[in-house]
Amino acid sequence: EIDGLNEQLEEDLRCLEHLQVQLVDEQSIRGVLSTCKCSLWTNEANALG
């Protein structure tokens, strides 16, 4: 029974590690998009101003 629990814990750990990588990737993408939006807004404001 303990072996089964250890296997489940290892599988859960792999899943959590995968989700953590996905989260970091998404946060990175959101940061890039946010930077792009700021740049676009600044460029538009400069063009209008």
UniProtKB/TrEMBL annotation:
Q: Which UniProt keywords apply?
A: Kinase, Transferase
Listed GO molecular functions?
kinase activity
Keyword Kinase attributed: yes
Query: What name does the UniProt record give this protein?
Result: Putative Snf1-related kinase interactor 1
